[in-house]
């Protein structure tokens, strides 16, 4: 916990040696830290009736950073020795030059703990994990004779981090992660379609191994595959779109969330730069980034700079009120850090990143929203997408969508893509449901070559006049 004495994961480096190296790097700097990490992970994939892959990985190392103004010096190593720290300090020191900076205060201390310290990889013997995956395969095939292939993956990891600052403050966090993914391929009369479902979070693996849980996950993957099996070509054109609750919040995350990260706004490269205090969304739209939700995939007790995570309001009743900040961008913009300084590993410097980003619920009944849709699309599942941060333009592919006419949900469609830009889409939200849900725990976010776990969520939404790409003649 944050108040404990410094001990960087093992005994090869003592506090005096680590502080000596850090102070050597940050003398005259504005900020800096040493980020120590040890991570162990396991993943087992059972594919088409056999174990396809069983992997175990263990890594450890440190990253040392010195910050002066807009410049950061960063060095990292897998060698946890005083000599490696001193070499890293000399490299990072190059960003500080002749100094003259004023060292920022350390983050406030916290004893908040949002998840267990237990290692989920030890929750069950290896044989039990294999048997569970084998049962998932057999269960899926017994559910429907059209199932021709099943792939299931169990993954678990434990990450231990410690962040040391030049004033001697030390912050530690132990972060578990688990996940179950099931993919089902069905075939009928020569046509093949796939369905996928998964779940996970910062909790024990035993919940995912419970038969009730994995049966439900497998049934959902099969349901989506069978929906796609009878899907018709998607229409194309400009139409109203209803987005389902939960995972469709990935569109919010990509099309809007990245544009509200502090670095893009400080550099004036975001479509939302300079709009703080202005209305950017329809009335009633409130969006938060919240890293404090217990056990969620995107949650962190402290970020990777040692700042306690926060529930940060980004949009309030349609008005832009805040950005997500790490320490460097917050200082340069004259605001407080929000606990969004994240990094993929010790080999990467921190930057502003999302945690769990979601839209608050409204007052409308979801069924009424659908009933009011005369001619449009109901999208409840999404796959990959692309977003241009500078203008917010996005293209997202739907993995489960339905044609809606006269308020009635009709046939499923395949090949549908949603095209638009985040700023315009926010202004076109016409109805917000009362059914806000978070995703099941499957999100990963990429930025500048770094990947971190995230969460998304939203209620049912009606967005008017989105461009839908499809294959129907």
Describe this structure in words.
The structure is a single chain. The protein is of the alpha+beta class. It folds into two domains: 15-229, PmbA/TldD superfamily (PmbA/TldD fold); 233-469, no CATH class. Helix content is 21%, strand content 40%. The strands form four sheets. Strands 9, 10, 11, 14, 20, 21 and 22 form a seven-stranded mixed sheet that branches. A six-stranded antiparallel sheet has the order 3-2-1-4-5-6. Strand 21 and strand 22 (450-458) form a beta hairpin. It contains ten helices and 23 strands.
Taking the sheet with the most strands, its summary is:
7 strands, mixed
The global form is globular
Question: What's the structural domain tally?
Answer: 2
Indicate the percent of residues in helices: 10-25%
Tally of strands: 23
Q: What oligomeric state do these chains adopt?
A: single chain
Which structural class should the secondary elements be placed in?
alpha+beta
What ranges have pLDDT less than 50 throughout 5 or more consecutive residues? 1-6
Query: Approximately how much beta-strand content do the residues carry?
Result: 35-45%
Helix segment tally: 10
The whole-number mean of residue pLDDT values reads 95
Please give the alpha-carbon distance between the first and last residues.
Answer: 61 Å
Our Rg estimate from Cα atoms comes to 24 Å
């Amino acid at each position: 916990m944050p108040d404990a004495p410094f001990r960087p994961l093992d005994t090869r480096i003592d506090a005096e040696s680590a502080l000596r190296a850090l102070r050597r790097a940050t003398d005259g700097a504005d900020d800096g830290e040493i980020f120590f990490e040890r991570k162990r992970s396991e993943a087992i994939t059972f594919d088409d009736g056999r174990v396809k892959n069983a992997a175990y990985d263990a890594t450890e190392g440190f990253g040392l950073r010195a910050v002066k103004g807009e410049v950061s010096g960063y060095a990292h190593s897998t060698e946890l020795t005083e000599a490696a720290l001193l070499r890293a300090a000399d490299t990072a020191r190059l960003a500080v030059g002749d100094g003259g900076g004023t060292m920022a205060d350390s983050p406030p201390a916290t004893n908040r703990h949002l998840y267990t310290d237990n290692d989920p990889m030890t929750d069950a013997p290896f044989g039990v994990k294999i048997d569970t995956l084998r049962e998932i395969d057999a269960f899926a095939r017994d559910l429907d004779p059209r199932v021709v292939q099943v792939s299931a993956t169990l993954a678990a990891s434990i990450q231990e981090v410690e962040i040391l600052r030049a004033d001697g403050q030390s912050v530690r966090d132990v972060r578990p992660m688990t996940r179950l993914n099931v993919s089902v391929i069905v075939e009928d009369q020569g046509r093949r379609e796939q369905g996928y479902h998964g779940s996970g979070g910062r909790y024990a693996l035993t919940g995912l191994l419970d038969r009730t849980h994995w049966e439900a996950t497998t049934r959902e993957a099969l349901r989506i595959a069978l929906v796609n099996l009878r899907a018709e070509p998607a229409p194309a054109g400009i139409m109203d779109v209803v987005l389902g609750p939960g995972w469709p919040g990935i569109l919010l995350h990509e099309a809007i969330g990245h544009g509200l990260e502090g670095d893009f706004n400080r550099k004036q490269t975001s479509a939302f730069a300079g709009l703080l205090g202005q209305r950017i969304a329809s009335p009633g739209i409130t969006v938060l980034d919240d890293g404090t939700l217990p056990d969620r995939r995107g949650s962190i007790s402290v970020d990777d700079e040692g700042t306690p995570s926060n529930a940060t309001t980004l949009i309030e009743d349609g008005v832009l009120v805040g950005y997500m900040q790490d320490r460097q961008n917050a200082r340069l913009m004259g605001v407080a850090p929000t606990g969004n300084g994240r990094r993929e590993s010790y080999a990467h410097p921190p930057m502003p990143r999302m945690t769990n980003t979601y839209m608050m619920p409204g007052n409308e009944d979801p069924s009424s929203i659908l009933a009011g849709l005369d001619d449009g699309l109901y999208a409840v599942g999404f796959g990959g997408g692309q977003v241009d941060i500078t203008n917010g333009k996005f293209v997202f592919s739907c993995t489960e969508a339905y044609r809606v006419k006269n308020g009635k949900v009709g046939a499923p469609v395949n090949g549908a893509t949603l095209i638009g830009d985040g700023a315009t889409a926010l202004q076109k939200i016409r109805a917000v449901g009362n059914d806000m849900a978070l995703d099941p725990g499957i999100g990963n976010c990429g930025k500048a070559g770094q990947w971190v776990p995230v969460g998304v969520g939203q209620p049912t939404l009606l967005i008017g006049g989105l461009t839908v790409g499809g294959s129907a003649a």
